[in-house]
């Protein structure tokens, strides 16, 4: 190895050392104070707000006026609703016949063809009413039910503690058949 080859090998390491020194010098310098920043100035300057002129000729009001005028002019030409009753609750027979009436809208005719007859609805409602009554009666039964009253004694063995001797006649009841439940 020659002297020249060792010097070329040292060049990259010396440049790395120089860069580290520069970085250290910058990072170890004292921090700048934020009090002299440009963002703190301008408190006394006047406002540069520019107010827009507002009138009824901007696009919103123009479009509102055009649409209102078109609606007023088109209203007499809109087709009116049919005079037929199309409610299944008011007249079920007419509602079932409305599937063949071509003057009604398509959606109304479709709903009339899908909707079952009125007698089916009556049967369903009657069954629902019976089930609701049964549920209400069951609920009342469980709400009004009470557990039997049980008087718990603190010392159930007190019946057996008394002496059977020297008891006056009629001062106590006969407790021979008494069964204490714990």
Features:
mainly alpha, 182 residues, 48% helix
Spatial separation of the terminal alpha carbons = 107 Å
What is the total tally of β strands?
0
Rounded average pLDDT: 76
Structural class: mainly alpha
Percent of residues in β-strands: under 5%
Order of helices and strands: HHHHHH
Low-confidence runs: none
Counting DSSP H or I runs of 4 or more residues, the number of helices is 6
What share of the residues lie within helices?
Answer: 40-55%
Largest sheet: none
Based on Cα principal axes, name the global outline. flat
The whole-angstrom Rg is: 50 Å
Give an overview in words.
It contains six helices and no strands. The protein is mostly helical and 182 residues long. The protein has a domain of 71 residues. The model has no long low-confidence stretch (mean pLDDT 76).
Short description:
The chain has 182 residues and is an all-alpha fold. 48% of the residues lie in helices and 0% in strands. The mean pLDDT is 76.
Give the topology, please.
Layout: H1 3-27, H2 59-74, H3 92-97, H4 106-114, H5 118-144, H6 158-161
Region (Disordered): 28-47
InterPro entries: Nuo17.8 (IPR034444)
Biased composition (Basic and acidic residues): 34-46
């Amino acid at each position: 190895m020659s002297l020249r080859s060792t010097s070329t090998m040292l060049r990259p390491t010396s440049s790395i050392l120089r860069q580290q020194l520069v970085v250290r010098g910058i990072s170890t310098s004292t921090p700048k104070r934020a009090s002299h920043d440009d963002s703190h100035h301008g408190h006394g300057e006047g406002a540069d707000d520019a107010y827009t002129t507002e009138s009824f000729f901007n696009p919103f009001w123009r479009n509102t006026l055009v649409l209102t005028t078109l609606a007023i002019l088109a209203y007499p030409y809109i087709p009116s609703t049919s005079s037929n009753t199309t409610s299944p609750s008011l007249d079920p027979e007419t509602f079932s016949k409305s599937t063949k009436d071509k003057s009604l809208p398509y959606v109304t005719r479709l709903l009339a063809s899908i909707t079952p007859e009125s007698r089916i609805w009556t049967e369903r409602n009657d069954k629902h009413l019976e089930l609701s009554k049964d549920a209400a009666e069951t609920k009342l039964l469980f709400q009004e039910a009470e557990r039997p009253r049980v008087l718990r004694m603190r010392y159930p063995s007190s019946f057996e503690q008394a002496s059977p001797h020297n008891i006056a006649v009629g001062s106590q009841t006969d407790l021979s058949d008494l069964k204490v439940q714990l």
